[in-house]
């Protein structure tokens, strides 16, 4: 029987390996975590990794330190033990943007996560953004969490503080995505059959409601230039919308 050399894809698969494993703590009584993990996300600049620990809890972990911890202590690691080796946020303003671990209680089951940055993904420097109510620095980094009750909560990644609570969806928020141009435009996809466009520069004002789906909306994504939004749901079609 003839044998053939491995293909490029087979070589890539052979070289892949598990770097590490984060395990959620077990909390059978408070029902905040320790159950199914629904979603994960990386910050655009790679500074943070966010994951839902089951039900209400989301953990923000400085990724470089987490990766170093894997390399030093082996592939398996319990998430709570990482906190003993990572720095905590302090009150020194000079340390504001230094990656620090945070545990966020979102108040309901977390279905979706997305990071948003005021720095366009194609640029290396920050852009000035005028905020109407919250006065942030140039390199603002946000985390959006989509919840079971239809709410979207916006958090400051550097401090772990809640900034906005968006409440127009009537069903589960299945997916979230930020425009990659640094505008902090957020789009949410929901089981209420709609997508909603939010302007976080304007106190989270809802700009548009997109109703092209006849069933639940599962996911959405921006084009690289942020001009087109594509979405999918419980149907056989991809719906594309031009955002102007």
TrEMBL record:
WD repeats lie at residues 136-165, 166-208. PROSITE patterns: WD_REPEATS_1 (PS00678), WD_REPEATS_2 (PS50082), WD_REPEATS_REGION (PS50294). SMART domains: WD40. InterPro entries: WD40/YVTN_repeat-like_dom_sf, WD40_repeat_CS, WD40_repeat_dom_sf, WD40_rpt, WSB_SOCS-box_domain. It comes from the Eukaryota. Pfam families: WD40 (PF00400). SUPFAM superfamilies: WD40 repeat-like. Keywords: Repeat, Ubl conjugation pathway, WD repeat. One of its GO terms (biological process) is protein polyubiquitination. This is WD repeat and SOCS box containing 1. The lineage of its organism: Eukaryota, Metazoa, Chordata, Craniata, Vertebrata.
């Amino acid at each position: 029987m003839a044998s053939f050399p491995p293909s490029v894809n087979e070589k890539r698969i052979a070289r892949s390996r598990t770097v590490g494993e984060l395990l959620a703590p077990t909390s059978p009584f408070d029902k905040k975590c320790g159950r199914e993990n629904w979603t994960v996300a990386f910050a655009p600049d790679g500074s943070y990794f966010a994951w839902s620990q089951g039900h209400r809890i989301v953990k923000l972990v400085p990724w470089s330190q987490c990766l170093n911890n894997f390399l030093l202590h082996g592939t398996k690691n319990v998430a709570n033990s990482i906190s003993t080796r990572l720095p905590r946020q302090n009150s020194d303003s000079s340390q504001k943007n230094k990656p620090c671990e945070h545990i966020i209680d979102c108040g309901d089951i977390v279905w979706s996560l997305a990071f948003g940055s005021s720095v366009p993904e194609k640029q290396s420097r920050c852009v000035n953004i005028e905020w109407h109510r919250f006065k942030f620095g140039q390199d603002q980094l946000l985390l959006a969490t989509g919840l079971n009750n239809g709410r979207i909560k916006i958090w400051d990644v550097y401090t772990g503080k809640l900034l906005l609570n968006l409440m127009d969806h009537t069903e589960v928020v299945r997916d979230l995505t930020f425009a990659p141009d640094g505008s902090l435009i957020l789009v949410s996809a929901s089981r209420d059959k709609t997508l909603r466009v939010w302007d976080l520069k304007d106190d989270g004002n809802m700009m548009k409601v997109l109703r092209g789906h006849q069933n639940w909306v599962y996911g959405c994504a921006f084009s690289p230039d942020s001009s087109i939004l594509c979405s999918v749901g419980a149907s056989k079609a991809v719906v594309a919308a031009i955002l102007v």
